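step=encode ok
step=design start
structure_in=
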């Protein structure tokens, strides 16, 4: 059997790989190998997601851990070269824009192994973002470019990439969301936190541009404190952000801020239970912009740009930057009942994993049974 080798490394990857892995398993015509690089090594940031998403344990765990961008990328490359030599995959499947994604693509292309990039074509047009560099370079060297929306196709064609390499398959992360939503809503998350549906906000912050700059971080926290005067704000604190808060001596002040609830990072189901019933979400995460659009939850993206403009064009997302006054004003409008309405983008229907499995079979020249081919 032809072998697909999946690379996961950080929290956003797991929600994207799970539906692909499941669809390939159900179709039963390709062999799979799941490699966890260990880029995220905190249990709440990685391992719990395998359980929540029903994924099998990784076949290989590299345990890379943290480090600078160069150090992390280099470590992953060194270890993946050994994996590729031993596993001899026919296709390396990478997702998203983390360092593990680019590392795997670089090793594969130099070893003449075909690469499929899931979530290709997303752009902020801001090369100061490490993720943007990872996206662009991975797209350049990938054989299959699997896009979540038509704007991503347009970006790739504008950059001169061959249309024959591009497949519009939809947003695979939404497969995970739709498949897990009912299970998440049965959890006691809100009760445990003393919250009522649609009567609280959720915040996530982790990007270096937000949490590593004391001035920017302080401004964002002041905006959250303002909102917390009107409704509770639940803030699952990313390990990187918690360290910065400690370095700046802001932890005790935040703990005493009325209405602001700092909690530990959550598993996928627990966090989905929280976000799906929120009044609004503040985030610098790309995935949450997409999830809130599907859930119909107003989202304020505290960045100057987004690689997911479809969530703004047709969804519930509003990019508000990092100016505290602008954030406060946007939040007040939502709380007062003037939120932006949206719709679910095309192909965000929970069947992207199936479409990707079919693309992989076609690319590798594998003939599925008539029943599976029709799916």
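sequence_out=
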């Amino acid at each position: 059997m032809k072998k697909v080798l999946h690379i996961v490394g950080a929290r956003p990857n797991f929600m994207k790989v799970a539906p692909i892995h499941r669809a390939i398993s159900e179709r039963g015509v390709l062999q799979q190998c799941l490699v966890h690089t260990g880029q995220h090594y905190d249990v709440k940031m990685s391992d719990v997601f395998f359980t929540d998403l029903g994924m099998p344990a990784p076949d290989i765990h590299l345990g890379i851990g943290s480090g600078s961008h160069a150090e992390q990328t280099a470590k992953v490359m060194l270890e993946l070269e050994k994996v590729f030599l031993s596993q001899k995959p026919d296709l390396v499947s990478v997702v998203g824009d983390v360092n593990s994604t680019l590392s795997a693509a670089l090793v594969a292309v130099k070893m003449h192994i075909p690469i499929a990039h899931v979530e290709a074509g997303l752009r902020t047009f801001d090369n100061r973002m490490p993720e943007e560099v990872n996206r662009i370079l991975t797209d350049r060297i990938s054989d299959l470019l699997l896009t979540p929306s038509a704007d991503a196709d347009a970006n790739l064609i504008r950059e001169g990439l061959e249309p024959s390499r591009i497949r519009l398959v939809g947003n695979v992360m939404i497969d995970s969301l739709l498949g897990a939503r009912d299970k998440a809503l049965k959890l006691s998350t809100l009760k445990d936190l003393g919250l009522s549906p649609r009567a609280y906000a959720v915040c996530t912050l982790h990007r270096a541009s937000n949490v590593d700059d004391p001035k920017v971080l302080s401004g964002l926290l002041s905006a959250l404190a303002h909102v917390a005067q009107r409704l509770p704000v639940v803030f699952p604190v990313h390990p990187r952000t918690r360290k910065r808060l400690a370095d700046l001596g802001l932890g005790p002040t935040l703990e005493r801020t009325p209405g602001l609830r700092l909690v530990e990072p959550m598993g996928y189901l627990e966090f989905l239970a929280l976000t799906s019933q929120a009044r609004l979400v503040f985030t610098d995460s790309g995935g949450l912009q997409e999830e809130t659009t599907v859930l119909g939850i107003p989202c304020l993206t505290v960045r100057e740009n987004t690689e997911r403009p479809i969530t703004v064009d047709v969804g519930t997302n509003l990019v508000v930057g990092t100016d505290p006054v602008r954030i406060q004003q946007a939040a007040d409008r939502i709380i007062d009942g003037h939120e932006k309405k949206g719709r679910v983008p095309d192909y965000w229907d929970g069947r992207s994993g199936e479409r990707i499995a079919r693309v992989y079979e076609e690319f590798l020249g594998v003939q599925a049974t008539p029943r599976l081919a029709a799916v």
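step=design ok
step=annotate ok -> The first strand starts at residue 3 and ends at 8.
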